[in-house]
Amino acid sequence: MKIECPFCGKRDHSEFTYKGDATVARPDHSEQDLDRWNDYVFQRTNPKGAHKEYWHHTNGCRKFLIVERDTISHKINSVTLVQGGGK
Amino acid sequence: MTRFRIQSPKGAKQIHFTFNGKSYQGFEGEPLAAALLANGVHLIGRSFKFHRPRGIYSAGSAEPNALVTVLHPDGREPNTLATTLEIYEGLEAVSQNCWPSVETDFGAVNSLLSPLFVAGFYYKTFMGKSNKHWMFFEKYIRKAAGMGEASVEADKSVYEKTNTFCDYLIVGAGPAGISAALEAAQTGKRVVLADEQDALGASLIGTNQTIDGLLAGAWLAQQLATLKTYPNVTLLPRTTIYGYYDDNTLGAVERVNTKALRERHIIFHADKVILATGAIERPIVFGNNDRPGVMLASGFGTYVKRHHVRPGTNVIAFTNNDSIYQQIDDAYEAGATVHTVVDMRESLSDYAQEIVTKTGINVQLGKAVSHVLGSKKIRAVQLDDGTKLSCDLLIVSGGWTPTINLQSQQGDKPIYDDSLCAFLPGLPHQDYLSVGACNGQFGLADCLKSGARALGQDRTYTVERDAPWDILPVWEVPVTKGISFVDFQHDVKASDISLAKREGFISVEHLKRYTTLGMANDQGKTSNLNALALMAKERQKPITEVGTTRFRPPYTPVAIGTLSGGKYGDHFRPTRYTSMHEWHINHGAEMINTGAWVRPRVYKQPGETVTDAYIREAASVRNSVGMVDVTTLGKIEVVGPDAPEFLNRVYTNAWLKLPVGKARYGVMLRDDGLVFDDGTTWRLEENRFLMTTTTANAANVLTHLEYLLDVVWPGLKVKVISVTDQWAGVAVAGPNSRATIAKTVSGVDMSHEAFPFMAVMDGFMDTIPVKIARLSFSGELAYEVWCPSHYGLAMWEKLFDAGKEFNLTPYGTEALGTLRIEKGHVSGPELDGRTSLDDLGLSWAFGKKDFVGKPLSQREGLMASDRAKLVGLMSKPGQAIRPGSQIVTQDNQTRSIGHVTSTTYSPALQNYIALALIQNGRDKIGDTVIATYPLKNEQQDVEIVHPHFFDPDGSRMHV
Amino acid sequence: MYNEYALSPLTSASFIQTDQLCVKEWELASFIQIDCWSGCEDQVIALLTQHQDKRFLVLHTAPDRLVVVSTNHDLFEELSALITQDVGMLTQLSQARTAFHLSGHQAQTILQKGVAIDFAEPVFPIHSCKQTSISDIGVTLHRLDENTFICYVFRSFAPSFHHWLTRAI
Fold first, then answer.
1. Nearest-Cα residue of chain A relative to residue B430
2. CA distance B336 to chain A (A)
3. Which member of A9, A59, A83 has the closest CB to residue C123?
4. Chain C nearest CA to B193, separation (Å)
């Protein structure tokens, strides 16, 4: 599978590290509610089909990406930097 | 020259090889099968289950029967196809799955019992009985069935891996592939044309068809010469594309076969792929259709045309389609005659009739071969009308199956074509096109046209003697005698398919797994379609309703060595070295791998064991002074105006008020509340911090920090940069550490008052800039001295010289461990991802402010009163405690209440000690429990004590 | 004047020289990373362009991250004066990297054995860089011209990288 990093170009997936579900919202740093943190850290829906996930370009620019990928066909629909920046 | 050799191959060198110990002559580079046939050898091996004699069935990589083992000076290579193995001087090959010899094989008794060995035999026979019966018979069964025997020697061949990027990858250099390549070449883009065979051209070689007025062979030579003139075209013979993966990435093996390089693993990254993979001829199913001397018509054709070998001189042909006549015609021109053709159809086409008239061959129309006579070699066939015809070779054509493995690997669902009696590629899931025979274009003119059309070009080629397509869809002849096989390599019979149907295994996936057809090395290349047709007939349904299974890579077997691409032994993974590495080696260090790094474990003196060495080293640190290379610690610069705030959020303890020039110990948690890593972080400037981490977690911590800055708090003005390789570091520890360092540095007041505990100072060692931090992992008066990496060795040597007067001892990771265990400091074995701050006795670091992991660190499970807590253990009998030992009590020796994390012999306490995590451990101080290691049947009594064994108030660091 | 105590990790390494390929260690005096604050990258590039001494090259290795490589040992001090902390943060990495210089017709062939990146010029232009890894070793791959490359690797990985290069040939 190849991932097209917006900065580095198309690279083999071995350059990246999967970093989890990008559809879950992280609670605020000051959030005290344990249930909210429990949901964020442990609960996942594991959908079939299109899924948004974080990937870290570990062996490249080391930026975090949001990849929209089909969990069945591996087809990638879009790749964006979490933080736009640079060229 | 034998009567089987038509002529010698042009320019080839005559060589000797042995088969089953007997010496033969052949020509260098020809396939072993051709050389054996030229010497009249037909019996090659014994079949998988029934040990039936088997010969050479075809002339390519689809071969199901002619598997041999090649013997090398350093080992053996089993399951090699004689049809693709190119012979060389001194080649030694032997038959497989037979004993004592292929001629007289005791395993042949299986053949007599074959009516019992039906699909599901093992399960049915042993079902319901205790496991004991199966276990008894299993070893004999395992010995009785099989293919070649694997070698246990290391593979000494050289392999490499590479990446090739191209705009067009054309798989298959037959007429369609070559025609596509010619058009692609003209685009100026990067073109690769690959073929599994040693010579490009496939079906064009030796055929007497003409293309645009030239004999096919001459046309081929001309086109190859043209292709060679284009700098943007790469021709790759002997290259099998074995797998088709996502993003138009394909795996291939190039058989380089030189002493320098055996095979090259090529990963192709293609913009567009053109699959010109051709078609494979299939058998007809009839009685004893597996005997040596029964061969595919195209195999016969290849041996005659390409290798100038006659596999037989008394040849009969058996067919249901027109293509066999082309082979008969070509063979006739090349000097090999077929005397009779048995054609299941009622009448001949004009094309076939022309060839019959020209060659004078006898025709038996509307008849079929019902079974073969002869066991180790064919001697005759019996037709369905009872006629017996003697022969020494039977060539068979049951039709052609497009080779759609790569398309299928991609998930495309094949579509059945009734007129072709074949499955064609379905809708592509990736950017590829199928051309030629694999796309159902069986005629030469159509092949050539389709290749050009793949590049959007309309070319017409004038072809003479192009074989039309006509087939009678008969797959099987009703058996009167003998056994009819469908999958030769796995010994699957037509009756197994009927059995599968009767027992309810009617779907194609069940049929495959229940009978094992299509599951051998050849992945059913010559058997899949016949099997589907037979099952369809059993179920009285059309073939499409039976369905197809999905092909899996590799197309043909690939050596593990090739897949490794040279990444084994020294090259399996990279190693990281510090600037002082050579010095360690030259001073007797025994090295150990810590992640990718290599570090001194101990510095053994003559006569010492590892234990002797580390005890001596640790004792010298506490008694005087020692030094250890700490370059491998992870170091991350955390910089920017928001750096203090960032550290304050990431660490559990407070960071906002750390003064410049001071360091502080910090612990960080994961989001789930468990401890992630620890280290010391130094404030170098107002907005510049240097964070250290454990060696093992350096990369993970950096990624964690990058995640928080990129995804969670993008508004924070902080940057994190790995600087591990910029700095070489030494920890100098012991009562004489200050004095030692003072002798080497200038610009630093080393006195206790001027240089307090946890301070960081800049100075010089001669011209080397150094940073010194007064930190202690050992619990002694200690300092870490850091300098830019290039000066590391010089810095080390200066300290070593300065320390001579104090008997300074270099120490390694063992003594490093001993010292910190004596002090109860946690490290890797305690920070195992399952421990909380409180478990480790670090709740003093639990800050009042918010920090990563704080909320969930207070969840029920992590606050439970029976959690395992960090304690120390003293050995009661004075024996070494094994790390990983489980802790049990006298009254309940089967329930573990904890485990041992780190152990050592303590020179300071003159006993064996350990750190452990024990349930309610802090309440059990003073108790005696048992440390047990069942794997080695060891156990001993241990006393639970405070984990800070030595100098518990830490006064030794503060002198 | 450079320091007498400086030792490269490749002091005892031997290098290949043929008419198809030349591999040698490139004397890397300065390797300085500039992490630009958001929106400041253009300003940093403008400041670099103004620097009188042109003996350096700028590599754009990541968004908001530039690396300056040079044969000038004093560049860190010079750039620190020029690029202030409100624009970007400088990190001295000059001793954290070892540079391998590869040139010759075979240079691409060798690198392609470890790199799954297309070397066609539209994809990998001359004077550009690619941050990637070769055989699990992080590499900043810098293209000087069609067949000339510099590979910057972490200093601690230099002997392993040399080992890989030697074998790849």
1. A75
2. 51
3. A9
4. 18
Report helix, strand or coil for C132. Answer: strand
Which domains occur in chain A, in start order?
A: 2-81 (3.30.2270.10)
* B199/C55 Cα distance (integer angstroms): 53
The set of residues, in sequence order, having a beta carbon less than 8 Å from that of B185 and lying 6+ positions away, is: B191, B226, B227, B230, B232, B233
Q: Which residues of C touch B637 (CB under 8 A)?
A: 91
Kindly determine whether residue A1 and residue B707, on different chains, have CB atoms separated by under 8 Å.
Answer: no
Q: Which residue of A has its CA nearest to B699?
A: A58
Cβ-Cβ contacts under 8 Å, C96 against chain B: 723-726, 789
Partner-chain residue, chosen from A26, A42, A62, that has the shortest CB–CB distance to B706: A62
Q: Mutate which of A16, A58, A62, A64 to disrupt the C interface (most C C-beta within 10 Å)?
A: A62
Second-level CATH architecture of C30-92: 2-Layer Sandwich (3.30)
**CA of C8 vs chain A CAs: smallest distance (Å):** 24
Second-level CATH architecture of C22-27+96-168: 2-Layer Sandwich (3.30)
Tens of pLDDT, residue by residue over B526-571, are 999 999 999 999 999 999 988 888 999 999 999 999 999 888 887 8
Residue of A nearest to C137 (CA): A59
Chain B residue with the nearest C-alpha to that of C63: B710
Query: DSSP characters for B747-770?
Result: S---STTTS-TTBEEEEEETTEEE
ipTM for this prediction: 0.97
Sorted by where each starts, the structural domains of chain B and their CATH numbers stand as 14-111 (3.10.20.440), 120-144 (no CATH), 158-281+400-467 (3.50.50.60), 283-398 (3.50.50.60), 484-545 (1.10.10), 581-632+726-819 (3.30.1360.120), 634-725 (3.30.70.1400), 865-958 (2.40.30.110)
C41 contacts chain A (CB < 8 A): yes
Task: Tell me: cis bond preceding C9? Omega within 30 of 0 counts.
Answer: no
Instruction: Name the band, by pLDDT with cuts 50, 70 and 90, for residue B139.
Output: confident
User: Tell me: the pLDDT tens digits for A75-86?
Assistant: 999 999 998 643
Nearest to C62 by CA among B180, B386, B706, B731: B706
Distance from the C167 Cα atom to the nearest Cα atom in chain B, whole angstroms: 9
- pLDDT single digits (tens) B671-698: 999 999 999 999 999 999 999 999 889 9
Partner C contacted by B689 (CB < 8 A): no
- Spatial neighbors of C129 by CB under 8 A, at least 6 apart, are C59, C60, C61, C67, C140, C141, C142, C143
Structure tokens belonging to residue B398: 């049951």
- Taking the C-alpha atoms of residue B304 and residue A72, their distance in angstroms, rounded to an integer, is 48
For helices B323-334 and B350-359, angle between their N-to-C axes, nearest 10 degrees: 30
> Model confidence over B59-110: pLDDT tens digits?
999 999 999 999 988 788 999 999 999 999 999 999 988 777 878 787 777 7
Residues of C within 8 A of A8 (CB-CB) are 130-132
Residue B2 has pLDDT above 90, yes or no: no
Contacts of C131 in chain A (CB under 8 A): 8, 59-61
How far is residue B452's CA from residue B131's CA, in Å, rounded to a whole number? 62
Residue intervals of chain C classified under CATH 3.30.1360.120 are 22-27+96-168
d(CA B45, CA B168): 41
Domain with CATH 3.30.70.860 in chain C: 30-92
pLDDT at B332 over 60: yes
Rounded to 5 degrees, φ, ψ at C98 are: -120, 140
Beta-carbon separation of B711 and A38 below 8 A? no
Chains that touch C (3 or more CB pairs under 8 A): A, B
Tens-digit pLDDT profile for residues B24-72: 999 999 999 999 999 999 999 999 989 999 999 999 999 999 999 999 8
